[in-house]
Amino acid sequence: MASVSDYVLDGAMLRVAESNRLHLCSAEPTSYAEATASVSLGFAPISIGAPVAHAPSGRKIVVPPILNGTVTATGSGAFWALVDTANSRLAWTGAMQDPLAVNVGELFTTPAFDVYIPGAV
Question: What is the pLDDT of residues 32-43, one digit of tens each?
Answer without folding.
Answer: 999 999 999 999
